[in-house]
């Protein structure tokens, strides 16, 4: 079966983000960018399913600026067979992303779409569920295990109090949680090979999707700073502070 | 204006964060209607009727709402949507699962995880693991909003309970079949409801070593949490995870033990009232958010703390 995976280009999660002084957003110039960690898990899952013989072709899709081609090359170095870039501004909102993906799904006809549960930049946690809704497909959000059996899959989802098991019909959309797998490191020979894999670039208009923002970003601010804390010398002092100063125990 | 809040419950009681979500919804303006959907959940509807600010409760009881599956719950909410200006749910695992489905079916761009209501169409939400706060204005006719419960004080008790009406279910979509849940069993309070949380990180070293944290937690009546590093190392299950991709907590007292303080962990706990950090590394970033910090080996400090409390 064919699988579609999505990859988003984001600021490296280990970089400390800085809010621009004019309050319009965060600084992205000269900042290290990378593949969103949950998207990396999505690619890894598809590659493992291909290695296990369940999947025959992996198509990676990214939506954003031209540099997202690098993100797609990373996905292809991990094992995706080809890439599609929808050439759009970096700030396309999740509903528009889901609509673009729906158009690609209708063209590519995958049986499974694997999406990261959340991008670590805008922390929206929406795209996969929205795509499933637009396609009227079942969904498994925050997935930690997938077993495909023909036209159905048994999935395990991470929920607040533990785990949930569902049987879902395929085609379906799955969003990845941390424990689904541990992504592989890409090797140099695979990076070289990925450069030769096909990468198609398309415009949102070609997919007939209006990507106008529905949410207007009025401003972006720094969060309030916590008051500086106090170093305590030992456990006895800590207990005294908690009892007499903070009064929390 | 009319606000619909979809309530998370276990059939009997409301889950932590629901009354906070109702308080946030009340700030959006208009009457608050609460939907309790599930199977054999009339006790939860009774509980919802007793929350201050709730004007009426709609109870929709059918087998296919057991487990709050996204497909069926979204279909029900979408069928009710035309009567409301705002559709609101907690940004917990429950709300995150079905709300984007509701939004997409209504052709609405959802506003996720809000931490403040500025006006009926303008909300503040943390982005980049809480390292920036974004103020957004929605141009959609219906606002679909999920609420960061820790950012709002809980609604109190109503003087008189709100009326409860029964609501007919919509047809089962049949897209998914609920097979079951494996819930972590614990006598300790739930993480998102606890007044005190004791959390361990990679420095704990093993699953076995978490016992010293559990002993401290039991002495304090606290919940036990963990950093993503501790979950990734397999010391504790994922539902212990506090952070950007785990649970967001803001207890009165958060004790971080052997946690270095990665951005993604701080995102989940830095709004706690008092933060204590115990780490042998004097340079650990967790100290930058700590109210009190102790540079000491946790295997010495934690048992001593438990013994002296």
Describe this structure in words.
The complex is a heterodimer of chains A (249) and B (309). Chain A is an alpha/beta fold and 249 residues long. Helix content of chain A is 28%, strand content 31%. In chain A, strand 4, helix 2 and strand 5 form a beta-alpha-beta unit. Chain A is globular. The N and C termini of chain A lie far apart (58 Å). With 309 residues, chain B is of the alpha/beta class. Chain B is 24% helix and 28% strand. Chain B is built from eight helices and 16 strands. Chain B has a seven-stranded parallel β-sheet with strand order 5-9-4-1-2-3-10, with helices on both faces. In chain B, a hairpin with a 2-residue loop joins strand 6 and strand 7. The mean pLDDT of chain B is 96. Chains A and B meet through helix 3, helix 4, strand 7, strand 8 and strand 9 of A and helix 3, helix 4, strand 5, strand 7 and strand 8 of B. Strand 9 of chain A pairs antiparallel with strand 11 of chain B.
Task: Chart the SSEs and their pairings.
The complex is a heterodimer of chains A (249) and B (309).
Chain A: E1 2-6, E2 9-11, E3 33-35, H1 37-51, E4 57-64, H2 68-78, E5 82-87, H3 94-108, E6 112-116, H4 127-135, E7 139-149, E8 152-159, E9 162-169, E10 172-176, H5 188-195, E11 199-202, E12 215-221, E13 230-232, H6 235-245
Parallel strand pairs in A: 1-4, 1-6, 4-5, 5-11, 6-10, 7-10
Antiparallel strand pairs in A: 2-3, 7-8, 8-9
Helix pairs in contact in A: 2-5, 3-4
Chain B: E1 2-6, H1 18-26, E2 31-38, H2 42-49, E3 54-61, H3 70-80, E4 86-90, H4 93-105, E5 111-114, E6 116-119, E7 122-127, E8 132-138, E9 143-147, E10 164-166, E11 176-183, E12 196-200, H5 210-220, E13 223-226, H6 228-232, E14 253-257, H7 263-269, E15 274-279, E16 292-295, H8 298-308
Parallel strand pairs in B: 1-2, 1-4, 2-3, 3-10, 4-9, 5-9, 12-13, 12-14, 14-15, 15-16
Antiparallel strand pairs in B: 6-7, 7-8
Helix pairs in contact in B: 3-4, 5-8
């Amino acid at each position: 079966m064919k699988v579609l995976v999505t990859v988003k280009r984001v600021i490296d999660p280990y970089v400390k983000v800085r809010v621009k002084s004019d309050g319009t957003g965060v600084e992205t110039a000269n900042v290290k960018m990378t593949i969103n960690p949950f998207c990396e898990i999505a690619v890894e899952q598809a590659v493992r399913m291909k290695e296990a013989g369940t999947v025959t072709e992996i198509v990676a899709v990214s939506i954003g600026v031209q540099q997202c081609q690098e993100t797609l090359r990373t996905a292809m170095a991990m094992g995706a067979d080809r890439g599609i870039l929808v050439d759009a501004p970096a700030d396309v909102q999740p509903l528009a992303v889901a609509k673009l993906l729906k158009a690609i799904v209708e063209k590519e006809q995958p049986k499974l779409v694997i999406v990261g549960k959340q991008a670590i930049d805008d922390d929206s946690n929406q795209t996969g569920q929205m795509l499933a809704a637009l396609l009227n497909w079942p969904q498994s959000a925050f997935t930690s295990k997938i077993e495909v059996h023909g036209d159905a899959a048994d999935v395990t989802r991470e929920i607040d109090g533990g785990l949930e098991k569902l049987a879902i019909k395929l085609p379906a959309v799955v969003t990845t949680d941390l424990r689904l797998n541990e992504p592989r490191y890409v090797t140099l020979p695979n990076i070289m090979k990925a450069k030769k894999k096909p990468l198609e670039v398309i415009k949102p208009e070609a997919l007939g999707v209006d990507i106008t923002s529905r949410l207007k970003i009025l401003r972006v601010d720094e969060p309030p700073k916590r008051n500086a804390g106090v170093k305590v010398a030992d456990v006895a002092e800590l207990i005294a502070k908690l009892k007499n100063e903070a009064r929390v125990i | 204006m009319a606000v619909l809040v979809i309530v998370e419950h276990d059939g009997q009681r409301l889950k932590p964060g629901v009354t906070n979500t109702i308080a946030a919804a009340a700030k959006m303006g208009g009457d608050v209607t609460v939907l309790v959907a599930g199977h054999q959940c009339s006790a939860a509807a009774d509980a919802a009727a007793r929350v201050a600010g709730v004007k009426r409760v709609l109870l929709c009881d059918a087998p296919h709402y057991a487990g709050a599956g996204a497909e069926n719950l979204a279909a029900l909410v979408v069928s009710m949507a035309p009567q409301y200006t705002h559709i609101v749910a907690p940004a917990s695992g429950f709300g995150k699962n079905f709300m984007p489905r509701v939004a997409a079916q209504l052709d609405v761009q959802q506003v996720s995880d809000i931490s403040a209501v500025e006006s009926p169409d303008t909300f503040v939400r943390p982005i980049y693991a809480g390292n920036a706060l974004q103020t957004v204005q929605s141009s959609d006719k219906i606002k679909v909003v999920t609420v960061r419960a820790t950012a709002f004080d809980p609604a109190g008790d109503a003087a008189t309970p709100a009326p409860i009406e029964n609501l007919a279910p919509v047809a089962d979509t049949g897209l998914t079949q609920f097979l079951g849940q494996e819930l972590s069993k614990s006598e300790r309070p739930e993480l998102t409801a606890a007044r005190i949380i004791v959390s361990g990180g990679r420095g704990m070293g093993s699953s076995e070593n978490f016992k010293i944290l559990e002993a401290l937690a039991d002495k304090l009546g606290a919940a036990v949490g963990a950093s993503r590093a501790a979950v990734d190392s397999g010391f504790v299950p994922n539902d212990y995870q506090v952070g950007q991709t785990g649970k967001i907590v803001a207890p009165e007292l958060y004790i971080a033990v052997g946690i270095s303080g990665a951005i993604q962990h701080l995102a989940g706990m830095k709004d706690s009232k008092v933060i204590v950090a115990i780490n042998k590394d004097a340079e650990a970033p967790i100290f930058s958010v700590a109210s009190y910090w102790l540079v000491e080996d946790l295997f010495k400090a934690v048992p001593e703390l438990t013994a002296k409390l």
